[in-house]
Specification:
481 residues, mainly alpha, Serine Threonine Protein Phosphatase 5, Tetratricopeptide repeat, two-stranded antiparallel ribbon, 16 helices, 4% strand, globular, disordered N terminus
Amino acid sequence: MKKIFIITLIISVFATSCETWLDVNTSPNSSTTAAPDDLFAYAATAYGANRAGGDNYMPIGFMNQAVATGGSFGWGYAEDRYDISPYSLGNTWKAYYSTSGNNLQLAIAIAEGMEPAANNSAAQAKILLAEMVYECTMIYGDMPYSQAWNDEYAYPEFDAQEDILNGLIQDIDAAIEQIDPADPIRIIESDLFYNGDMDKWVRLANSLKLRIYMTMYDQDPSVADDIAALLNGDLVSSADDNFLFPFFDEPDNENIKFKLFDRYANGQNLWIFANKNVFDFMAAYDDPRIPVYFDEGPEAAEGEFKAVETATEADATTSTVSMYLYRPDAPEVIYSYSEMLFFMAEIYTRGIGVAVDLNTAAQYFEEAVEQAMLFYEVPQADIDNFLANDLPDISTMSAEDALYEIHVQHWIDLMDRTLEGWVQSRRSGDAGNEVPNLQLPNGAPAGGLMRRWPYPDDELTGNTNAPQELPQIYDKLWFDK
């Protein structure tokens, strides 16, 4: 990455027909008078497209065994055996740096240079950029950060992941300090997430800090005090605060995954199957989300659901991931109320900055599961029955067993959020004790589970400060205990 220039929005085949998608596919950086609003909208759209598309959602979901390819019966043996396309590696890197990151940096600079300064607009861009950098380091590990997006550094150095995560906390704090809800100058129509509601941006910012600290905790227990300080603060407090990238049931604005099936499979899911690593947990609990998450195979009996193992051939009775999840207006979920509640349950179970309190943990746990089910529109009667009769009462368990149950439900909730699911599975325990306990897929390279993506070739050849000794795909990232 010599210098970071804006690029044309590049999406793989899975992000088909983006030519007019949300009407912001033309880079506003081509104009010297670009407004922060336009830069923000373009960056957010490119980011949402990559997260939901074939360069991010799909390969991460397959290689982390949240969904299954079904082998030659479905998507084909590739990502579930750790053969990640160089296009996915490169396009995802460029999305975080060039397409989105550079535009957000420009938006920040322009907003802060206005008279008077558009501090709310700058803060919105900083918070979104912090989330993008967090995601990028969760995928690749060490990466350019402190010298990135800076014309003084033609070849930015790679920062250590620990330093990046600590830096992101500082970036978010700086953004929170800038926010003034009484100031009407802010990004509103181009804010596809919160429509300029700065109170929601503050709650999101604090909740992103909580997520970062929870990611860091096992390698840096000193952040426990920082976690405790956030518990009574202004966090995501309801589903109304969910951080979502929207899609719409109208031409060119549909969910990226729907567009693929609509164009190439007559609106059917022929390629993405239920993975046993998710399904077996759900079946054991008689989870009412099963018919929400999955559709019966074309030759299965009505109400008969069956999953397939990773890197294994599916058949006509194997359940596919439901078209409900891939409907045209299904939003891309980046941060949810249920996720925050699972973190709270974990905090009180492990005693992170607080005393161990399994009764409090159980309350958060039950609410987390309820909110997770409500998001996917499970009928309230089915939720109530599940909570009363099937969900384990973790208040009666040992802390170790309670934590296991929390991780199980957290993993189920993240099935369709493959990047967050990959982070969660890696941080859920020591190797061999993670939830789920994934096994090396048949046909995957020896060495261990895929714990990081390799750097894209363009970065390695174009940046003289890129690492000379490259990590292996099975090498742990810093946060991964």
